[in-house]
Design brief:
17 helices, FAD/NAD(P)-binding domain, 8-stranded mixed β-sheet, alpha/beta
């Protein structure tokens, strides 16, 4: 029997129905004797409050995270006149670009697209100029600091402060937030802007703590930098951070061992300085470029392919791939053929083309074969952009260790021991990635109605409506959260869409004197089913990638980012808002929530051919 959510073999948006609100048991509130000071956004205790009661700061909204999404969210909420407090565990703005300072760290989207758009500030677009096609970490961090300075954002941010618990109080329709410094804060809205790759993954190798040399994780790099001159260095992992760091520190080391379990389809970025004429023309067309980015599924102004890889001759196919390879970036997956993510045979043509490029670059044929992926289709794992990675293996002092054949058994006081050998090193670099999408959300200790932990609600995988909200957690918005496009698009375009939608929703609630909003369970179930159906129509579930949580032992295997594409997703979100936030229940304080109008049947949201990490 055909699924009711399918039409002619393609995913369709399910019909969603409204239903009653559930779970009204109230939790005990914190001390309620607080005096609201809207001008400062801070409350002090009243005279009748006992001296032993802790101070509670009160705001309209709390935002967690001060990277791209947190800064833009703060800016938009300020424009609406809300009092806002932002918390960040870092010592300054920057988010992932504050922590990831390893050599070679840079963005994978072209710099000219990795910016705030005219929705934030037209002047900001004009007065910032990138120096390279793919900006390095120091320049991106400088950009975000410039944004914070120009708009005086730091005054509303508490740095070096980590949220340790956030609980929803049903009696007051407010979130109660505790921080690791003992602070207490309440807010009507809790908005997470914690990024998708912010909790590091450090495998529990036996003996890891016994190593007598220096150990580093790429996601928590020392701010003062590291000098590897003359050292023997082990790099464990061959994902995106490894691909960036290996060619950089290869210039310093006396010998480097790169421990690889799974090779990736690394594609060239062809980084270069940006000339003045290119920058001038780009700035002149920024508005048009950003409109194309908003409408595209990739979040980048790429041309959409209309042919299957199997519709052309092998010679024409090779020519198309060569052209995209020469341009660099994600074009080989986004601008070549329309079925690379949908058809195994078509995908294999792209996969084999990339393998042929690896063999052309790496001189040792045995090493080349180890570096050439054969266990998963192209673009079903995040394809890193490389800038000299494969060339590094032509050096005499860089050695590839195949841990699939000879697994790592232990970290010893002097190095790394595999099943077949022991490698003595002075330093170990763990390029082992992150607990993506959910790691940071779970670490915050979020509890919804009835004290239910988010970890419990999502025990079998994320349960969201639009990847933005979850039933049982009123007034909680998760920017670029699981089941939204996020990491499968240009992140700045995805961030802008989410922040603008949340800000417009908050404005709507203010205009209609509404205190709370949360998804109806039927709407949430429908979105999860749709999200799963779209993903299952592609090749992505076949790979053991962090996109499906496979890199974290015990993590629920499911597709975390939404594959329908940013342009399609934007249309769905806009339609839901235009129809009075259909699929959400909205309510006033002390009144039962009223269900929004039911979402209607929607056009099919086909899995996008265009994705980017």
């Amino acid at each position: 029997m055909d699924s009711p959510h399918r039409s002619r073999g393609r995913p369709r948006w399910p019909i969603l129905r409204t239903g009653p609100q559930h779970g009204t048991a109230a939790r005990r509130a914190w001390p309620a004797q607080v005096r609201r000071t809207r001008e400062s956004g801070v409350t002090g205790t009243s005279n009748s409050t006992q001296a032993s009661e802790p101070r509670v700061d009160e705001f309209d909204a709390v935002v967690v995270g001060a990277g791209f999404s947190g800064l833009y969210m703060l800016h938009r909420l300020r424009e609406l006149g809300l009092s806002v407090r932002v918390f960040d565990a870092a010592g300054d703005v920057g988010g992932t670009w504050y922590w990831n300072r390893y050599p070679g760290a840079r963005c994978d989207s072209e710099s000219i697209y990795y910016v705030f758009s005219d929705h934030f500030s037209e002047e900001l677009l004009e007065d910032w100029t990138w120096s390279e096609r793919y900006a390095a970490q120091p320049e991106i961090l400088s950009y975000l600091r410039h944004v914070a300075d120009r708009f005086d954002l730091r005054k509303d941010i508490r740095f070096d402060t980590r949220v340790s618990e956030a609980a929803y109080d049903e009696a007051t329709d407010r979130w109660e937030i505790r921080t690791d410094d003992g602070g207490r804060t309440t807010a009507q809205f809790l908005i997470t802007a914690v990024g998708c790759l912010s909790v590091t993954n450090l495998p529990e190798f036996p003996g890891r703590e016994s190593f007598e040399g220096a150990s580093y994780h790429t996601g928590e790099w020392p701010h003062e930098g590291v000098d590897f001159t003359g050292q023997r260095v082990a790099v464990i992992g061959t994902g995106a951070t490894s691909v960036q760091i290996v060619p950089e520190i290869a210039e310093q080391v006396s010998h480097m061992y790169v421990f690889q379990r799974t090779p990736n389809y690394d594609i060239p970025g062809w980084n270069r300085p940006l000339d003045e004429e290119y920058v001038r023309k780009t700035k002149e067309s920024y508005k048009e470029l950003w409109q194309r980015m908003r409408e595209s599924n990739l979040g980048l102004p790429y041309d959409v392919p209309e042919r299957s890889a199997m519709e052309v001759s092998p010679e024409e196919r090779r020519r198309v791939y060569e052209d995209a390879w020469g341009k660099g970036g994600f074009r080989i997956g986004a601008e070549t053929f329309n079925d690379i993510l949908l058809d195994e045979q078509s995908n294999e043509t792209a996969s084999e083309f990339i393998r042929s490029k690896i063999r052309e670059t790496v001189r040792d044929p045995d090493v080349a074969e180890l570096l050439a992926p054969k266990d998963h289709p192209f673009f079903t794992k995040r394809p890193p952009l490389e800038h000299g990675y494969y060339e590094a293996f032509n050096r005499e002092d860089v050695e590839l260790v195949d841990v699939r054949r000879s697994p790592i058994e232990a970290i010893t006081p002097t190095g790394v021991r595999t099943r077949d050998a022991e490698y003595e090193v002075d330093s170990i670099v763990y390029a082992t990635g992150f607990d993506a999408m959910t790691g940071a959300l779970f670490a915050m200790g979020i509890h919804g109605r009835g004290g239910v932990p988010l970890t419990e609600k999502w025990a079998d995988g994320p349960q969201t409506y639009l990847g933005l909200a979850t039933h049982g957690f009123p007034n909680l918005f998760t920017l670029t959260g699981p089941q939204s496009p996020s990491v499968l698009t240009n992140m700045t375009a995805a961030i802008e869409q989410h922040v603008d939608w949340v800000a417009d929703c908050v404005r709507y609630m203010r205009e209609h004197d509404l205190e709370r909003i949360e998804p109806l369970p039927e709407a949430e179930d429908g979105w999860v089913a749709h999200h799963t159906e779209v993903g299952d129509a592609t090749l992505l579930p076949r790979a053991n990638s962090w996109w499906v949580g496979a890199n974290i032992p015990g993590k629920r295997r499911t597709l975390y980012p939404y594959l329908g594409g940013l342009g399609t997703y934007r249309e769905v979100c806009d339609r839901i808002a235009a129809n009075g936030y259909e699929g959400f229940a909205l309510g006033r304080r002390g009144e039962a929530a009223e269900a929004g109008s039911p979402p209607q049947a929607r056009p099919s949201a086909e899995p996008t051919q265009q994705i980017v990490g």
